[in-house]
Write a structure and sequence with these properties.
The protein is mostly helical. It has a single domain, classed as Multiheme cytochrome fold (Orthogonal Bundle). The chain starts with a helix and ends with a helix. The relative contact order is 0.11.
């Protein structure tokens, strides 16, 4: 009986160690698609305008600009924070207008520099000016 209990425990632990992380990561992948990001009606204008720029899918996706891309822990933490905030404002409160927080501005700026390294190599990018201040219409049009 004791062997059977330890075998059951081993199976449960194995399932937890293997299945939950895989299912969790699959959930992260599914919620990182443009199709998921644009399911909220407040995101429709961003979807429409981005579709007519060089920053359109499949070349560039929402997550490429709007999530930290330098490490998975930061990406998951910000995704959980930002997603929770968005869900709250669209379900509990009146749907919010899209606003860029200081944290998301920093993420967007870092991603602009990450993707356009050769373009900005001779430009001072640490003077407080954000790429999207001058190039506001590039990712989402007018």
């Amino acid at each position: 009986m004791r062997k059977w209990m330890s075998l059951k425990a081993l199976i449960v632990i194995g399932a937890v160690v293997i299945i939950i992380p895989i299912a969790g990561w699959k959930g992260v992948e599914l919620t990182s698609t443009n199709a998921f990001c644009t399911t909220c009606h407040v995101m429709k204008p961003q979807e429409e305008t981005a579709a007519h720029t060089v920053h359109r899918s499949p070349q560039v996706n929402c997550k490429d600009c709007h999530l930290p891309n330098d490490n998975a822990v930061k990406m998951l933490a910000y995704k959980a924070y930002s997603g929770s905030k968005d869900i709250y404002s669209n379900v509990v409160g009146p749907p919010d207008h899209i606003r860029t927080t200081n944290m998301s501005k920093s993420i967007i700026q870092n991603n602009c520099i990450r993707c356009h390294t050769t373009t900005v190599q001779n430009i001072k990018t640490t003077d407080g000016k954000q790429c999207f201040e001058c190039h506001r219409d590039i990712p989402h049009g007018k």
